[in-house]
Design brief:
This protein is of the alpha+beta class. 19% of the residues lie in helices and 31% in strands. The strands form two sheets. The chain has a four-stranded antiparallel beta sheet with strand order 3-2-5-6, with no helix packed on it. The longest helix has 20 residues, at 2-21.
């Protein structure tokens, strides 16, 4: 019985260890004054992986592919920002700049 338990235990230990090392990308998106942006889009460029920030501006993308990667962060009324990452990162802080657009006259 002991000879069967040891291989199973080692397989479970290996899988658990692999899960611990599988890291993604997480962080917070704010405006230029530090206010959290809820609903900002965070996408790994060139993939279909992405998410939106929660009410605290927090996001997490379970990206396990090859690095470097570029994140594209966008929110209505703010300039889209791209951030290149060489490795998995947690607690990434991204501040978006407000986009100032001067339009013409509005006719209703």
């Amino acid at each position: 019985m002991c000879s069967r338990v040891l291989p199973v235990f080692l397989i479970v230990l290996f899988i658990a260890g692999a899960e611990v090392h599988a890291q993604g990308i997480s962080g917070t998106v704010t405006d230029d004054s530090g206010v959290a942006l809820s609903g900002a889009s965070v996408v790994v460029k060139g993939t279909t992986m992405g998410t939106v920030t929660d009410t605290r501006g927090v996001f997490a993308v379970n990206y396990t592919g090859a690095y470097p990667v570029t994140l594209a962060i966008s929110f209505i009324g703010f300039r889209t920002q791209e951030v290149e990452l060489d490795a998995a990162v947690s607690n990434l802080r991204i501040q978006l700049e407000e986009e100032i657009a001067f339009g013409g006259e509005v006719v209703i």
